Amino acid sequence: MSVYVFGHRNPDSDSIVGAISIAYLKNQVEDEEYIPARQGDISAETQFILDKFDGELPVLKTSVAGEKVFLVDDSDSLLFQDDIKEATILGIVDHHKLGDLTTNAPLEMWVRPIGCSNTVVYEMYKSYGVEIPKNIAGMMMLAILSDTVIFKSPTCTKVDTKAVKELAAIAGVEDYKKLAMEMFIVKSAVDGASARDLNTRDYKEFNMNDSKVGVGQLEMVDITVLEPREEELLEDMRKMKEENGLHTVLILLTDIMKEGSKLLVVSDDESKIEAAFNTKLENHKAWLDKVLSRKKQVIPFVQPQF
After folding, report:
1. Which residue among 169, 172, 200, 273 sits deepest, i.e. has the most Cβ atoms within 10 Å of its Cβ?
2. Domain extents in the chain
């Protein structure tokens, strides 16, 4: 029976590349076939990575009842298929807080408080003594540079920077920061994108003491291009809130050059968000200086408010 490897809903580059890199590794050391999968459409950034290093798009997998699965880049049931609890989870590779998924049998777990799941995967390759193919090394390198915002994110560690340098050498990439900037320029493109597309490009929902909170993030080279569309984004956030029965929707417009984020808020109680960040919202907005990471600088501060 095959094992499907996949990451969270609204897959980002880490979850897509993680599915590819883990599946290849496990196929070298396990008897069962591991298949890279995904839960949804990929972003322009992820397509850039696949195109650059001849990566194949993982198969779409929206139902997993009765299947064997291996998860990457999260462990919260809200972020996986609706029937995830009917699957057999063989392993989890992650760099987030521990989620609510449980299993009926022992499983393989690699969870590290570092910048990217693919850095954890790199450590797995070393542990297993498996050589990383050149193209997979290149994809893993860019996934780490994406998640760590080219090492600017507070989640970035020396382990991540070391992994990037070593993966770049394997992939034959001399100027990995230049390539990463090309990737972020692709990621920053907003022409023709709807408000819903922008709000959900990198979006996750969290259960905070029985209140559902949606948090999206747009990482861009220059967020000023979105200023004329902020009211449009807020209006769509209101629709998302109603459609999904959410208490709060937060969208971070993250400027990787200014190293901060403009926060857009739609909430039943904005005072909770103001308290979380010790700030005052003006017209449902606030600038959060040096805030680049959702998992380290947003969720740990918002969740206690609930």
Report:
1. 273
2. 3-185, 195-305
